[in-house]
Amino acid sequence: MQELTSTFFSRSLVPTTCTRPRPRPTSVVPMTICMDQSRKEKVVVIMGATGAGKSRLSVDLATRFSGEIINSDKMQFYNGLEIATNQITIPERCGVPHHLLGELPVNDNELTASEFRSLASESISEIASRGKLPIIAGGSNSFVHALLVERFDPGTNPFSSKPSISSELRYDCCFLWVDVSVSVLHHHLSKRVDQMMDSGMFEELASFYDPRNSRSTVRTGIHKAIGVPEFDRYFGVYPPEKSHNVCEWDQARKAAYEEAVHEIKDNTWQLAKKQIERIMMLRSSGWEIHRLDATASLRASSREVWEKNILKESVKIVKRFLLKD
What we know:
325 residues; alpha/beta; Rossmann fold; Helix Hairpins; 2 domains; 6-stranded parallel beta sheet; 12 helices; 6 strands; disordered N terminus; ATP-binding; adenylate dimethylallyltransferase (ADP/ATP-dependent)
């Protein structure tokens, strides 16, 4: 155990902005923890509102603790709309294996909480069996609850007006909540939508548009993703085959475009508030969730501030967790 612990503590800190995958490190998770069948498997769970920095922290920790990441964002399960669903890019993954990310066809049936529980459980077992640390990251808290609780009832909504959140978990969990003040997060999300549009989200949605799906009153799977319904209404009036050159648009089309973008921003903010509300419900129900204040880091857009305020504390928490009996 001592030798493994020494290896565990010897990992050097490395930046998460990678231009190419780095070689996978040897295991730095004590093997006695992973392989002792009498104990619950250890899992790190990274929570937070959309845009708060969950993906960044998951990669930061995975590169330090020989981890692999399991996606728990409903919309990011699908292979398509990578910009609209804000999937972490290949360079940003820094060679860290990601599971349940971009694996489902866009027209596949919607993944249920029960199916996620089964798939993610298999991933956790597989990762732990190889001496790696499973890291759950994503904003779908209903799926996180379904995966982690000892007894899961697919027929109930744990976050309803009468919550039925269980505090009995089937894994030994370390919860990290990347939190940001309301005003800073609101500004950041609005700015991020503009950046996504500039990065090709409009063109991506135009290629994805299908008039048959846009007329449906019931949306499933990736067709629920923020951006799809908002621009389905836009493309219903201004079909994608028309010019994308903004200079050729009349005032009505520009106004329709701006309205769609505004709706995306508003719906993104509503999602963020719901995610925060559910994390607070989990916390008040007995889940030991460590809150990390990323406000200063997000406001400054500084890697140095992030490492000082978020990463340093996260590493301490995870180290204590992994060495705990």
